[in-house]
Amino acid sequence: MKTRKILALLLAVLMTIGCLAACTGNGGEQTDPAGSQTETQGTVDNDAAAAAANAFNADFISEWGQFVADNEGTEINLRIWAPNLAQDVVKAEAAKFAEMFKDYFTTNITVEIQEEGDTASQVINDPKKAADVYSFPSDQLNKLVNAEAIASVAFSDEVAVLNTANSVSAATIDGTLYAYPSTVNSYFLAYDKRVITDEDAKTLEGLLAACKAADKKFTFDSGNSYFACTYLYTGGLQTLGYQEDGLTQKFNEYDIDEVTNTVKAFADLFKSYKGTFESVSTTGFADGVKVDPTTVAAGVVGSWDVASINQILGDNVGYAILPTINVNGTDKPMINMFGYKYFGVNSQSAAPYAAQLLSYWLTGEECQIDRAKQLDWGPLNIKAQEIDEVKNDAAMTAVLAQSENSMPQVSLAQTFWTPLDGLGKYVADDSKSFSFEEVKEQVEACIVNILDE
Amino acid sequence: MIKSYKLRRGIANTFIYVVLAVLSLVWIFPLVWLVLHSFRINPIDPTIAPVINYHGIFPKFNELGFDNYISLFRDTEYLVWFKNTFIVAVFSCIISTLSVLMVAYAFSRLRFKARKPFINVGMIMGMFPGFMTTIALYHILDILGLGRTHVGLVLCYSGGAGLGYLVAKGFFDTIPRALDEAATIDGANKNQIFWKIILPMSKPIVIYTVLTSFIGPWCDFILVDILMGNERQLWTVSRGLREWTNYQNMSNGSFRWFLSGSVVVAIPITALFLYMQKYYVEGVTAGGVKG
After folding, report:
1. Which of A117, A308, B54, B74 has its CA at a distance of 20 to 30 angstroms from the CA of residue A250?
2. What ipTM does this complex have?
């Protein structure tokens, strides 16, 4: 009788959990095509440069403070959306903003949690209820601009001078700058210094050999297009915005044999280092080093993983740019996809001037340095990149160096992602080896599918 | 052909039990996994989130602990979400239960001209999935000034609840009409009959209706997701759990909250189930006879 009761209890618990588990299993939304035209920046006049250099000095504050007070009143309510991790930092930054302009208008700023992965969807769902200022990754820009949910940048001349050219051009569509660059958002190499020497970390072959010798793994999220595009980019393919129809992806004049050879080189490494070269999401690295003994010695990780990795490994972690890969005798640097995070102003904000001012402040030198120091978020402000805390920080140095070997995540077609997911999984399949022709067929099919509308 | 009946029965039974065992494993194993792994911690430092891609089915003994649960209540908004879920579920439950029982009573006892057409319309409307209208609901609630409020959410859950009258109607049909007639002779009107005669005799079906209308809002995800947007203070648990499975949060260790949160949210509803279990079974079978 008693056992029946216990059994009934157990079943009841399981049944109810089951009905809840079913509600929540849905995975994250795949990153969408990104960016804007890679046009060259218009020449910025010297006045703007001079003004930018003195951003938020007394003149600037009084001029704009008065302007906002005249146009929008002296009590202004603003809402900011920022991810959970950045809440405290952004709150402090917002408080400084309110303090700075307190002689001209009172600002009531609330900072709300909104993870950047679905900022654009939340904004577009109901722009009237969305925050006045929100942070989002570069791949959502097209969506926001198409939905007219983002206002163009009021301080575009200043922003263009203050931040790296790539980050500005990635937020520019048809000559209009739409968002304030805030931080880098990309991926690079992390390794356990106890196992891997800095020398090993320079080549993929060296890395894998060292990992294999130590019987530990190297992780790379091959089945995810955001990472798998590395295969094609390293092989010399480049994405150059859209073709004339404004929809189809435009490529450079790539050499299909070279691309194929490179993809095959990656595929061969997966085969020859079976059990070492593992395709798993970027959390795989942190996962593998937090157990004892560690199971992972190196991996490709994202900017968003750095905080948790540092917490686990402390001084034992090394960060570097992605290694080189040997393709038929030549060492080629791995070229990755490079994204950015921005602050945008809601086009339906009730206080558009104050919101522009706040975004400009949040992405200014001081705030970018704040976030670099407290969150390890690599700055895009040119001056902020020069400070010692950034220069001496391994992760930020690595990600900034990686930007030299990368394609900006700009103007990618809707069709860019899914075919690459497939190619990535194909490359990571270590159960059999492929011939050159087989790989070429796959690569060609992948490119055709990207071009297909 | 096997002659022996015993052997034949043995073979048939073995086959059936193997199939059943496989099915039950497939069904029950993920749940066992969820419960077990909600207790799995990082053995080196419990304050750091445990491994997500865990190699192995069962956690080792030294990897077990309550840290995920402690962290769930200490570091997250879980209690707020839990409170929201509870409030929404209780109010939706009260309104929908009343509405279901009253509709069932009307269809079972009253004879009016539009009865058949109403039953048919109800049947057809019941075939459409509820989430079909979520976008429309969002805009309508917004116009009414109820957008992103719990009142709006409760209204959505309980508004169409009356359509689920079928089982209850089946139950009421089994109660002899002679009782109604006797009450009428004593001077009771239809309303009094419902409250004083029918309801006290229908405990099982009342319990059944309470349970089903409580579980609906308790587990629902889609409506909350759309109606509440990103107002975290208004979310219910299922929306919160979903947030903990997105990749940005995963790398910060939110998966442990997902595991422990899923187990905790099951507790009240389990308690309700256990408390009302014997009525529940009676209610289902009793209504089913004529349903």
Report:
1. A117
2. 0.73
